[in-house]
Amino acid sequence: MIRLSKSFIGEDEKSSVLEVLDKGYLGMGEEVKKFEDELSNFFNRQVVCVANGTAAIQLSLQASNIGMGDEVIVPSLTYLATFQAISATGATPIPAEINKKTLCLDFSKLSEYLSERTKAIIPVHYAGDPSGIDEIYKFSSKNNLQVIEDAAHAFGSIINGRKVGSFGDISCFSFDGIKNITSGEGGCIVSDKSEVINRIKNLRLLGVDGESSLREINRRKWNFDVTEQGWRFHMSNIMAAIGRAQLKKFSNMASVRQRLAKYYDRLLKDFGKVDLFCRNYDEIVPHIYVLKIKSSNRDYVRKEMLERGVETGIHYQPNHQLSLYKNNLISKLNTTEMVSENILTLPLHPDLTEIEIDYIVGELIDILNSEPI
Description:
three-stranded antiparallel beta sheet, 12 helices, Aspartate Aminotransferase, domain 2, alpha/beta, about 35% helix, Aspartate Aminotransferase, domain 1, 12 strands, seven-stranded mixed beta sheet
């Protein structure tokens, strides 16, 4: 079976975890601080690590004073986690339209979702693509809105010579098992807003004031104060050890992802039964490889691919179609609904080979050419 996605873990990650286990301090401590420092050098900005990418978004919203009664504009075509992070604060996620060429937020329609309660925009860098981010910042500046980038797919991606996370308001990354780099689970917030970073450091540790600085030297507070609702959203030393090993070899993993995505494009660009999304893989580090198939029965195509030993995925079901969020819809999302019916995700991870991609593409072409009417 050719897996849709998988963790890319080697001996470096295993030995790093064993070192933490031997030291016997498994929770949040000096290893997390080292990972944060290395990430800070990577982005040239302040970084705070947390339990996962969802927590990163939720804490960024709370630290930006966004909550009950507020509205946040977010593309409907994203993983449920983005919407859940918003509603967990008490704020309302407002489902927004996507650009059919990139599957990222359609910045030309942002004014349609604007109200006196709008406090933030969360653009999602779909498949690692930060397209439209400059226009989104222009709109947010004009309307006094906070931008919190969901960059879960985009670790290492570049736009206009700038690394995602190295500019803008706040960027949130995910380090779960199949992302561009992993710490097993985990995530981080990147920003030059010291007040946001410092507040998140408290919030991730149940709101205990000043606890983070002690954890960095493997100590903790026994007498403390708490002034607001916090969460158990900190990263562990075990997770940080995996992340540090991954960061050391990220350049190689990124180039493999870029090379494989380019290879898919070469093999499929002249096949008339699929539409490709034009992405510059010299700058984008793709987390997933998505295309649009010209088929009346995607379920049939996926079933046939699976029977031939290839896992496929769907990224994603629009959130405005979910019972919890369907009443948040302000205007019809025709592009989102049209595109979501025909997108298909093909396998992409650093262990994948070009020989396997030859097989994947060959089988997909055969299935689409022979699909029953």
